[in-house]
């Protein structure tokens, strides 16, 4: 639960509105301003992750496996799947957590805010 600021909207509400605004722009293919991850550090230009399979894992949630097609993938980046926004919680390669995944790497990503029904094989996940 966020605190109510002097202008009446909580920080959580402002963050939700910002995510919705960004998702709307991304879904229409328009240029978007740089967004920030949860640590408020500027993110690099976005990229694409190609999904080869998705699994629901107890205690972890949705894990999608596939290949980084473009960009550099890091935990806490924002991902957009069919207009829905998720956060990349972690990245694994060869059953080891890694801090970064680059183009051509086959990895598994844990997605917060998605269900298995949201992510199908062959789908491209756009991240920033």
UniProtKB/TrEMBL annotation:
InterPro entries: EF-Tu_GTPase, EFTu-like_2, Transl_B-barrel_sf. GO terms for molecular function: GTP binding; translation elongation factor activity. Residues 61-122 form the Translation elongation factor EFTu-like domain. SUPFAM superfamilies: Translation proteins. Residues 1-20 are annotated as: Disordered. It comes from the Archaea. Residues 9-20 have a biased composition (Basic and acidic residues). This is Translation elongation factor EFTu-like domain-containing protein. It comes from Candidatus Iainarchaeum sp.
């Amino acid at each position: 639960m966020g605190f109510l600021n002097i202008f009446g909207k909580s920080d959580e509400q402002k963050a939700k509105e910002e995510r919705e605004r960004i998702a709307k722009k991304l879904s229409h293919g328009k240029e978007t301003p740089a967004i920030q991850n949860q640590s408020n550090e500027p993110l690099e230009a976005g990229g694409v992750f190609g999904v080869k399979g998705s699994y629901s894992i107890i205690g972890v949630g949705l894990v999608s496996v596939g290949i980084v097609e473009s960009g550099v993938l890091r935990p806490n980046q924002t991902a957009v799947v069919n207009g829905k926004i998720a956060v990349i919680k972690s990245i694994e390669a060869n059953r080891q957590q890694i801090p970064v995944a680059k183009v051509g790497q086959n990895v598994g990503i844990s997605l917060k805010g998605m269900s298995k029904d949201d992510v199908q094989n062959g789908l491209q996940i756009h991240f920033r």
